[in-house]
Amino acid sequence: MDLSVIRPSPYPFFISPQNYVHWVETPQSHLFSVDLPGVRKEEIRVELEDSHYLIIRTERDEESTEAMRKFMRKFRLPERVNLDGISATYENGVLTVTVPRSFVRWNLRINSSDLIHSNGNLSARAA
Description:
There is one protein chain. With about 130 residues, the chain is mostly beta strands. The protein has strands at about 5, 20-25, 30-35, 45-50, 55-60, 70-75, 85-90, 95-100, 115-120, 120-125. The protein is built from no helices and ten strands.
């Protein structure tokens, strides 16, 4: 995996707060990973808020009688991401959320009837 930008942890390697999420940027996507040992898959929620925020949290199952570590983190997503392509996996107590980058190019199209000829220059009318 080619990692272009790795956000280093502000904590020493032996100290990591319980709500720390590791965020890695690759050319293809943003990867969020968090250790959630002992949490069942059904108790994990990955949500989008207003199409701008990624929320990762745990929610206690009403049937469960065991104690659960509460967890909640909220991230503002970058501008160019594919919201429909977001995926999450949970293996061996580690949740990984993949947010793919969007590579859509915006093309500006000018109708020839909107062109104005003045002083030998071409310009387009503002919308």
